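Late entry, written up from scratch paper. The run itself happened at the end of the previous shift, but nothing got recorded in the book at the time, so transcribing now.
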Amino acid sequence: MSDSLLQRVANGDMAAMQGCIDTFGGLVWSLARRFLAPSEAEDAVQEAFISLWENAGRYDPAKGNEVTFVAMIARRRLIDRGRRVQRQGRVVDEASQLAPPAPVEPDTAVVATNEDATRALVAMESLTEAQQRVLRLSIQQGLTHEQIARLTELPLGTVKTHARRGLIRIRELLAPAGEGAALKGARP
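Output as recorded:
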């Protein structure tokens, strides 16, 4: 039997890390939106995937499946980020009141995550080239806004604007039918 995705990540396989982002990205984003304010979610997702990269070697298939392990790592990073934000005096949207996510059957979670990832990729194609580049550098390569600004030689404000407008557009495209109208009123 071949190594699992996380076992391959633990062995330094960058393609496997990309596979983790594609497979578990929807799950991590969903958790980030539940635990943190939207302004904090993007950086928190990056931190969660960095932590996943660093801790993939701790994954033991005998103790649980990959979805559970990824959710645990992400949840811990999100809680850490929420606490850090609270210490800095910022308001965190109900992070302290949220219960941990309800357990989901692994097969259902994987299918839902794969469907979410596919929908997100399709939505990503509707963005401008600049928005796509900024989001790919941020999400897939884990770069901060400052690093992206240096790499692309764009002003930091422009990078942030591309990221924000791109994420808003993706959220609009991925929102269930009833929520689309409410999101259209959001500032781009």
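The domain at 125-188 is CATH 1.10.10 (Arc Repressor Mutant, subunit A).
(Scratch paper discarded after transcription.)
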